[in-house]
Amino acid sequence: MSHSLWLIVPAAGQGKRMGADKPKQYLSLGEKPILAHTLSRLHQAFPTAHLVLCLDSDDHWFKPEWVPFSQWQRVAGGAERMDSVLNALHAIKVPENAMVMVHDVARPCITSSDLWALYDAAQQHPSGALLAMPVADTMKRANAEQLSAATEPRDRLWHALTPQAFRYALLRRALEYAVANHCMVTDEASAVEALGQAPKLVSGRRDNLKITHPDDLALAAAIMASQVAQSSESERSC
Ligand SMILES: Nc1ccn([C@@H]2O[C@H](COP(=O)(O)OP(=O)(O)OP(=O)(O)O)[C@@H](O)[C@H]2O)c(=O)n1
Ligand SMILES: C[C@](O)(CO)[C@H](O)COP(=O)(O)O
């Protein structure tokens, strides 16, 4: 399935909200760094995919031994996430209709079942697809004093997750359009939407956490431990 799949992993962020002494992707989660966990999960699902890893040019923490893929390349990150992803697209030579899947390095709890569901949806939808989660709470709009000024209707509101997957030509056109129009997009789907297209929302697991703040580390460790326990439980019952 995955021989024609290109995985782009933006990993050039500084992790400012984490406030650690190194970028958050190099913080340990159990026996290895977050980056190694994320790449390992992607490899479990798509062992023959080609990986493009976006790293900051000044990155001196990265170790190639954390990459389990046989075909991979490193590209320089950009000023924003969207610039890092566009650098990756510019660095690879692939057919226009090749499938490209972008996944945050900061989401190590991604599961094979979600990855495969997204891949299938992106194959079927010409505008691509993204993992997402319907909003479950009542949504408040704050005023400047952080008072609850209004309640927003939450019907049809979703949280965008990653991965997000698109045909190469569409994603490249979308991100080039966003850059040319000085439009700061925080995910790939926003860039595709700006072209007037509507990617498919694929309902993903709620535990696909983006490690952002210090508390998230313990939460991610607990999620991963519970996922491993569940998968050995289901292997035993087979
Ligand atoms: N110039 C950038 C900025 C972000 N990222 C990547 O985009 C993903 C999502 O970004 P986020 O969680 O915001 O990470 P950081 O930018 O590292 O965090 P912060 O905003 O707290 O600095 C991460 O995998 C991050 O490494 C990137 O490749 N290039
Ligand atoms: C792409 C993303 O993970 C979707 O939720 C998210 O937008 C990236 O994080 P950021 O904090 O907006 O950079």
TrEMBL record:
CDD domains per UniProt: CDP-ME_synthetase (cd02516)
Record keyword Lipid metabolism present: no
MF terms (GO), sorted A to Z: nucleotidyltransferase activity
Site (Transition state stabilizer): R17, K24
Keyword Endoplasmic reticulum: no
Enzyme Commission code(s) on record: 2.7.7.60
Transmembrane region(s): none
HAMAP family registered for this protein in UniProt: IspD
Role, per record: Catalyzes the formation of 4-diphosphocytidyl-2-C-methyl-D-erythritol from CTP and 2-C-methyl-D-erythritol 4-phosphate (MEP).
Entry protein name: 2-C-methyl-D-erythritol 4-phosphate cytidylyltransferase
Lineage: Bacteria, Pseudomonadati, Pseudomonadota, Gammaproteobacteria, Oceanospirillales
